[in-house]
Amino acid sequence: MTNRVTLSDPFGATNHKGISDRIGAKAPCVCLSPRGGGRSVRRKSRGARCMEQVVNVSNAQANQPSGGHARRLFYDRLGRYLFLASAALMTLIIFSIIFFVGKQGLLTLADVSPVEFFTSGTWNPTAKSFGALAFIVGSLETTLLSVVIGAPLGLLGAIFLAKLAPVPLARFMRPAVDLYVAIPSVVYGYIGLTLFIPFLRSTFGVPTGFGVLAASLVLAIMIMPTILSISTDALNAVPKPLEEASLALGATKLQTIFKVVLPSAMPGIITGITLTAGRALGETAILIFTAGTTVSRFMYDTDVMAGGETLAVHLWYLLSAGLVPDRDTIADGIGALLILTILVFNFLLVLPLKYFQRHSVGR
Fold first, then answer.
1. Where in 121-208 does DSSP place strands (E)?
2. Cα 356 from Cα 59, distance rounded (Å)
3. Number of structural domains, the chain?
4. What is the reported pTM?
5. Rounded to an integer, what distance in angstroms lies between the CA atom of residue 34 and that of residue 44?
6. Which tens digit of pLDDT belongs to each residue from 156-183?
7. How many helices (H) and strands (E) does the chain have?
8. 169 backbone dihedrals φ, ψ, rounded to 5°
9. What's the CA gap between 216 and 237, in Å, rounded?
10. Tens digit of pLDDT for each residue in 257-266?
11. Are residues 275 and 254 in the same domain?
């Protein structure tokens, strides 16, 4: 009778059957025969060979004389500190700008009544009357109207590129859209001056054509590519299983897009609209070409063909005219008010973002 002694493999597969099962075959073993003095070796499985290679590579890296593992940990800590320093620097720059402009703006309120500055629509520097409400209304009017026009068009274009367009067409259109984002605003203003102003003047029979409508149309064209690009990325980021599950339940393609994909991508879409609205609120060149540097005779004028000077345009006018008394002090106040208006406007747009983040599909 032959007595056989089985030596377990170095991975412990003989004593731990679960590991042997996970690698897909029995681990190798060495068998000794006391009679013949011979040794029989079973053939190693592929899983065992892979595990052995991993162990050999790990041991080789751990035994490197240059300390490879320690060097990788050092690089990891260095990268982490670099990212933290970059974030801290950006935060410091942003808060420094806000602090500087806010401090200079508060000095304006020492000479001008805060109530008059925020609630009065009369701006007459020679009479020491400084009411900025008309410029606030003009800024909000042009921004909201441009978002109302540009956001739906940009979103529909994003839906087409992300879900409906053929792949070759989508690959061609996406770089073209990104090129439109890089066009300077002064070029858009020139297009509005040469195309939209004559069209509105001849169509509606107005004397000049300059006004809120012309400015809003050009702003809508300017923000549309940005909304389209960000919305496309947001739609493509929606998990495919959500769309496949909706289609498997019998929903049509359009029902899946508007009932499943669009609500899931809404946080990213709102983020894009917020960014573009902030840019439109602080835009200057387009409004100088299309809206002019005058305000309507009425405080809450609903005529979109009337003039609508904004805070940014008035700030440019103060610093370029040079004939306004105490222009530097007043310009500081207008700049602080512009930043405050942008912050409040963005905060109001972030509230729907928080809502959709809590109530989006799959949460």
1. 123-124, 129-130
2. 50
3. 3
4. 0.71
5. 23
6. 999 999 999 898 898 888 888 888 888 8
7. 15, 5
8. -65, -40
9. 31
10. 999 999 889 8
11. yes
